[in-house]
Amino acid sequence: MKATASDDRERRLRQAAAFNGRPVLTLLCMGAMMAFGVVPIVLAVRMATAARGWVETPIEVLESGLHRYEAGDESTVGQAHVTYRYRFGGSSYIAHRIGLHLQAADNIGGWQERWVERLRDPEADAANLTAWVDPLHPENALLDRSLRWSLLLFHACFAVIPAWPMYLAARALIARSRLRSATGGR
Fold first, then answer.
1. What is the pLDDT of residues 34-78, one digit of tens each?
2. Which residues have C-beta within 8 Å of that of residue 72, sequence separation ≥ 6?
3. How far apart are CA 60 and CA 127, in angstroms?
4. pTM higher than 0.90 for the full model?
5. Using CA of residue 125, residue 129, residue 135, residue 140, what is the dihedral sign?
6. CA angle, 56 then 66 then 145, to 5°
């Protein structure tokens, strides 16, 4: 008995539809995980692009430090914090932002600790400590306008890893829909 093209198509659809689990839930969960990776990358790249046109301005550090948090696995993560003053366009401003990325504690590459050391260095004179100020919105400033590639790579993992389960779940949903159409809902 020879298999017809429609039998072969139905067999392939059933094979694709055989997804262990709940494909809609998989798509939602993996989509949220992917957003956790994509959103910080997009925001950092967008800010880096905007900051290329910002103006370098001397600052006065009012306060700086490193907040340490327990990571749960007997390690700690640090978050640098700073308050600095700068003058721009005849007005004085106070800002807190250090880098392009969303401000959060991390222990990726020692960036947080290096900034705290630099800000607390008694040898640092005003000429060495500068902020990059948005000339259109001078209340926006930051100290480091470079991308942290190790942090971007960390977030990229959350953007890439969910792609395969999402592909399989979407493929299963499409196959199930086509199978229902091909078999008349049986």
1. 888 899 999 999 999 999 999 999 999 999 999 988 877 778 888
2. none
3. 10
4. no
5. negative
6. 25
